[in-house]
Specification:
single chain; about 260 residues; alpha/beta; Rossmann fold; 2 domains; six-stranded mixed beta sheet; 9 helices; binds adenosine-5'-triphosphate; ATP-binding; nucleotide-binding; cell inner membrane
Length: about 260
């Protein structure tokens, strides 16, 4: 079992490129993600969700505090932490299979083996016959699935997901939520998901973390079991109709709303 940890992490950005003046964006963040967990981070726009993910990915260095994997400070981005963005960021000059195989190429894996593994990963994300397709021939949902297959190709211990379903229509998004849940459960990687959707956070995560802004800080860290209920075959409607679902939904909405009112006061 691996653990990705942020320990008393703060992050300040310079104000208007003036490095003598800084603004605190995240303050005192402590968060541990184990490789069997799915943490969803919600919070208002500007509360620091993406900054938190960028710290975990190693794209940003904390101003103070530590970011580590299994107790070892990270030095920057690494293959142990794969990132999927809202904008799929695929290579348009490569077909779907070669996009997925790209991390394998970087690791020096031979061509035949790369092809087999890429096809296997494409099958895992339900794109068995799409390997030879050009990126521009794929729908938005298919492109996101290729992006997730590519992230899995590096055999990461953690998947860092920055609003990966945010640009999709409601129906495709609902389908891909179920798919993401299955991928997480099968691949046994820890997942950190940034989302604007309370419902998405509740349906996928084993823990929902709420950030409040100015400066970004954790105001709630709540366990959830709806994803596991979905995986064990309970229907979405039954889950959404349950009192525990409605209670948590109301609670999370209240937390985000309370924080907005505090800001306006
Ligand atoms: N590179 C940067 N330089 C200066 N300020 C930044 C930088 N990146 C983010 N910020 C500021 O940090 C704060 C948090 O931004 P961040 O993108 O992490 O929030 P967020 O919760 O992900 O927002 P959203 O939900 O709108 O994507 C914002 O006020 C933003 O303007």
């Amino acid at each position: 079992m691996s653990v990705l940890s942020l320990q008393s992490v703060s992050l300040a950005f310079p104000v208007d490129r003036d490095i003598s003046q800084t603004r605190l964006v995240l303050d005192g963040i402590t968060l541990h993600l184990a490789s069997d967990e799915f943490i969803a981070v919600i919070g208002r726009s500007g509360s620091g969700k993406t900054s938190l993910l960028n710290l975990a990915a190693g794209f940003l260095k904390p101003t103070s505090g530590r970011v580590s994997v299994d107790g070892v400070d990270i030095a920057g981005p690494g293959a142990d932490r794969a990132v999927v963005f809202q904008d799929d960021a695929l290579y348009p000059w490569l077909n779907a299979r070669d996009n997925v195989a790209f991390p394998l190429k970087l690791r020096g894996i031979a061509k035949g083996e790369r092809r087999l593994r890429a096809d296997d990963l494409l099958a895992k994300v339900g794109l068995d016959n799409a390997g030879a397709k050009n990126i521009w021939e794929l729908s938005g949902g298919m492109r996101q699935r290729v992006g997730i297959a590519r992230a899995l190709a590096s055999d990461p211990r953690f998947l860092l997901l920055d609003e990966p379903l945010g640009a999709l229509d409601a129906l495709t998004r609902a389908r891909l939520q179920q798919f993401l849940l299955k991928v997480w459960s099968d691949s046994k990687t820890g997942a950190l998901l940034i989302t604007h959707s309370i419902e998405e956070a509740m349906l996928l995560a084993t823990r929902v973390v709420v950030l409040a802004p100015n400066p970004g800080r954790i105001v709630a860290d709540i366990p959830a079991s709806f994803g596991r209920q979905l995986l064990s075959g309970k229907s979405l409607q039954e889950i959404k109709d349950s009192p525990e679902y409605r209670r948590l939904h109301d609670g999370l909405t209240g937390l985000i709303h309370a924080d907005a009112q505090e800001d306006a006061a």
